[in-house]
Design a protein that fits this description.
With 272 residues, the protein is mainly β. Helices cover 6% and strands 47% of the residues. The protein has helices at residues 9-19, 80-83, and strands at 23-26, 43-48, 62-66, 91-107, 113-126, 141-154, 157-171, 181-195, 201-207, 219-224, 232-233, 240-251, 256-267. Strands 1, 2, 4, 5, 6, 7, 10 and 11 form an 8-stranded antiparallel β-sheet that branches.
Amino acid sequence: MRFRNGLFSAWLTAILLLCSLSPVAASPNNENFPNDLDVPEGFKVLKEYDVTNENNKVDTKVEGNSLIADDGININSMNNSQSKIPSEEVNYEILTNETYKYRDLENIETGEKVTQFKTNMVVNADPFTWTGTNKNDANTVKLTITLYYHSQTKDRFIYNGIDKAYYRYDKGANWNINNALPYGTNSCQLSQIGPGIDTKAKKQISDCSQIPGSIDFGKTFLAVAPSSWIDVLDGGLGTEVGIKVNTNFINQSTAKFFNYGWELKLRGQSPI
């Protein structure tokens, strides 16, 4: 969590040293990502919310979208041999998109109030490999993203900032080690763009890509935003707060690959 007063720099630096942007664990399918239990330095907890209680669910503008070829992340960086391999048609289905109020904090020195949120998104990709257009969970590849972000208010305006995100790919029962493998490049990118709480325009982007070959089914990855980032205006012109990930998988049984690109972001007004 980053605020204009910089009280979180030491805390997040320690987190980054411990966790970095590498895999935090090899997790079995359907395992929940860990909760953020650390209280940032200089703050105290005013209230904890049960993120399994429907009463704590909030309406939010966090959107999940498929990445397209001209998005510019990873797809254009495929190597020559990969670009010659035919691709599968992929259909996406959002299974879960829920945001919960997670915690209220107070700055011990200034009395500033901050609210933390947790968004869970689960989306299935079905390359129609096994059963044509008859969808079956056993044939899908599932992507789970958990995004932690916070909001604070200044001069009656709300500003948002990323804390961290977890993501993981899981495969259905029909995908075995012999016919579905990560292939080629992968990408991960955090972004926090828009009018800053310091009144200056911000374009804050962090590369959280994994080492080629490290992406695998059932592995959970952690991405943490830099501590220097400045919160940006909620609903502002060109505001963008969130994560996008992109990975290619090859289906050896059909000699085709399919691209799994997805983003989970809060967006403001379009600049166009």
